[in-house]
């Protein structure tokens, strides 16, 4: 057990009433380390317990690695536009020489190096701010105590930390199928892809959600033959229907095989590859298979239920809009809550939790202003109400769409696939939501996010200046299409 020490005089400014507040954070991902930094700046005594490394899965095996890999794929995708721009890559005209080739071992070496560097940066920042960092597999021993067993990185003796509040931010792990057990060589989860040294000859991707679509698109761009197995009627079944249809058309145009309404039953190794059996008896063969069928919260066996923390049947921690669980003094954030599996949401949940613990001003979590992005080529960015949600609720709305191909800047860059779509209230004219399908849509969605968050009208957006020519000009143009003249 440890005693509370006063923050370093060279540390962050602190509130005198919060000197004795002890916060233990179980998990060092975005929900955990962001919360720790806020709590420390407010003067709390903070300990972060993390098993894999600072940054958690988001930095080490999920968001940072996948988007770094996709960055290489994005470069390859951009070469498709080269001929339209008058640029010749590769060999001489008429040659069979490829425009570019991929060294997957070098790509993955860079992926893992960047992830490790980011993790080290996060740890250094936490320690610089005065946060206590403990490596180990922590578990709750009641609602106000965390125990870290002895083990590699955790020390030779069990450590016990009493707390005034505990934040659980343990994340989630890839869901595994009992009939497709990952072996790390041919049957893979998304955490294991970065061990590949050569590009798969044929990659079978099981699952057409965000993870499956991102990796399928990336590996096709890198040069692998790809078959995407989707149990639903289209790719990205939970996303905007127009965006999903466009992306599926792009996938097939690039040579990807998309098997819709095809549920995978099993995957097994063959002498030199894999065999994926579908529910209807068909068999898909490949060199490797990626099983991307969701994630499960990492909440088992860490003492949550014994501490009085309610879990859903799926194992997610039940939380309210200020991140409280059913156990007094225990909060939770991130993928283990099942609220919305985004690093930005996890970080917000964690920050809200510590503000609530420390009696600071708190704004409950508002998912209506969350911007999300799918890092395919083109990217799909969304914010606010979706068209499906508006229809399901019977809400009044008007919508307008402008194809990216009509944008002058897009024409200059050789971009054809994509669009900007906005939803607005027909009477109040307030922007309710939006979808952008475009290269770097993740950067373009921000003006729409501001409009949704601050309840701007379409006229507010339309009357703002944009650079000419620019891709963002299409956002203002769509807003002008939604203008309603005065009676």
Write the layout of secondary structure elements.
Blueprint: E1 22-26, H1 30-41, E2 45-50, H2 56-60, H3 63-78, H4 104-128, E3 132-135, E4 139-140, E5 145-148, E6 159-162, E7 165-168, E8 172-174, E9 187-188, E10 202-206, H5 210-222, E11 225-229, H6 241-253, E12 257-259, E13 264-269, E14 274-278, E15 283-286, E16 288-291, E17 295-297, E18 330-332, H7 343-357, E19 371-374, E20 379-384, H8 387-393, E21 398-403, H9 408-413, E22 419-424, E23 431-438, H10 441-444, H11 446-453, H12 458-462, H13 473-481
Parallel strand pairs: 1-2, 1-7, 2-3, 7-18, 9-16, 10-11, 10-16, 11-12
Antiparallel strand pairs: 4-5, 5-6, 8-17, 13-14, 14-15, 19-20, 20-23, 21-22, 22-23
Helix pairs in contact: 1-7, 3-4, 3-5
Q: Top keywords for this entry?
A:
disordered N terminus; 487 residues; 5-stranded parallel beta sheet; FAD/NAD(P)-binding domain; 23 strands; 13 helices; Enolase-like, domain 1; alpha/beta; 3 domains
């Amino acid at each position: 057990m440890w005693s509370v020490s006063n923050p370093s005089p060279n540390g962050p400014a602190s509130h005198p009433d919060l000197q004795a507040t002890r916060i233990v954070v179980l998990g060092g991902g975005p929900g955990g380390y962001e919360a720790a930094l806020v709590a420390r700046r407010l003067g709390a005594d903070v300990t972060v317990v993390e098993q894999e490394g600072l940054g958690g899965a988001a930095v080490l095996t999920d968001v940072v690695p996948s988007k770094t890999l996709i960055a290489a794929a994005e470069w390859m995708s951009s070469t498709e536009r080269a001929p339209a721009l008058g640029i010749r890559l590769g060999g001489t005209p008429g040659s069979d020489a490829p425009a570019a080739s991929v060294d997957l071992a070098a790509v993955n070496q860079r992926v893992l190096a960047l992830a490790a560097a980011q993790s080290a940066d996060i740890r250094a920042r936490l320690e610089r701010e005065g946060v206590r960092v403990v490596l180990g597999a922590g578990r709750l021993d009641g609602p106000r105590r965390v125990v870290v067993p002895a083990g590699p990185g955790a020390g030779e003796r069990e450590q016990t930390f009493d707390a005034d509040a505990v934040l659980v931010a343990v994340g989630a792990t890839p869901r595994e199928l009992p009939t497709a057990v990952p072996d790390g060589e041919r049957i893979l989860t998304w955490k294991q892809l970065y061990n590949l040294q050569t590009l798969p000859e044929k990659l079978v991707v099981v699952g057409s959600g965000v993870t499956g679509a991102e990796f399928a698109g990336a590996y096709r761009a890198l040069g692998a033959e790809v078959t995407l197995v989707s149990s639903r009627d289209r790719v990205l079944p939970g996303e905007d229907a127009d965006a999903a249809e466009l992306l599926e058309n792009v996938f097939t145009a690039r040579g990807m095989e998309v098997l819709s309404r095809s549920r995978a039953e099993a995957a097994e190794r063959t002498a030199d590859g894999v065999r994926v059996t579908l529910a209807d008896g068909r068999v898909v063969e490949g060199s490797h298979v990626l099983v991307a069928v969701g994630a499960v919260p990492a909440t088992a066996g860490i003492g949550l239920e014994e501490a009085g923390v309610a879990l859903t049947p799926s194992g997610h921690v039940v939380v309210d809009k200020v991140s409280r669980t059913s156990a007094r003094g225990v909060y939770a954030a991130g993928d283990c809550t099942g609220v919305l599996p985004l690093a930005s949401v996890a970080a917000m949940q964690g920050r809200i939790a510590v503000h609530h613990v420390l009696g600071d001003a708190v704004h409950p979590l508002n998912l209506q202003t969350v911007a999300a992005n799918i890092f395919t080529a083109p990217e799909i960015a969304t914010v606010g109400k979706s068209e499906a949600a508006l229809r399901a609720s019977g809400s009044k709305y008007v919508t307008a769409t402008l194809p990216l191909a009509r944008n002058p800047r897009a024409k200059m860059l050789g971009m054809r696939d994509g669009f900007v779509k906005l939803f607005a209230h027909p009477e109040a004219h307030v922007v309710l939501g939006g979808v952008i399908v475009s290269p770097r849509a993740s950067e373009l969605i921000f003006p729409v996010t501001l409009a949704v968050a601050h309840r701007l009208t379409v006229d507010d957006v339309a009357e703002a200046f944009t650079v000419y020519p620019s891709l963002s000009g299409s956002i203002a143009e769509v807003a002008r299409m939604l203008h309603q003249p005065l009676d």
